[in-house]
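Example 3.2
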Amino acid sequence: MSIGENIARLREEIHRAAEGSGRVGSEITLVAATKTQGASAIRAAVEAGVDACGENRVQELTEKLEAGAYTGAPLHFIGHLQKNKIRKVVGAVDLIQSVDSIALLSAIDRVAEELFITQDVLIQVNIGKDPDKFGVYAPELEEFLAQAAEYPQIRVRGLMTMLPLEAAEQETRDLFAKMHNIFVDIRKKTYDNVAMDFLSMGMSGDFFDAILEGANMIRVGSTIFGRRV
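Structure, written as tokens:
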């Protein structure tokens, strides 16, 4: 099937999952995970109506920006961001989904100040306490957000998570539900420069369950582009 056909079928699944959680498909932001994809494939996904593109690697992001691959869609950075590569990302993307430390937050704030911009970010939460994943542990999140409010060039727009690869289906549902409860709880509180607009969780293998449990942003690669070889 073509990329456009894959996205059309994916939208049907998104709408069905959204209905299962009392919402409609238009409330779910579809981010095309474009890691290793060429410019022509990304352009096809943008033309087919993905809501945003998400890149994992800074070098790929820079090369594809120069090729105009993402034109027509917002651009997110969804991979682990090293501090020595921040200058290539801040201001180049609409949203950094993977902020996982105060040191990284502070560095992003400094570069954003130099560029006279406010950088939107999501805070990555390690909800599964997976030692192989980055992110803030849930019990530390409120203190993290209180500190984030001290950086005026940062605007926290929500939370992101990645689950352990070996998680079974019920554990996946439970972790997504736990993440949503945290998201809802934080929404009730007030922090400067913090708004809980987006809960980014779910990828090709588990986006349906993520939406059922409350995600309003998903990051999908192989379901759109086919499996990487």
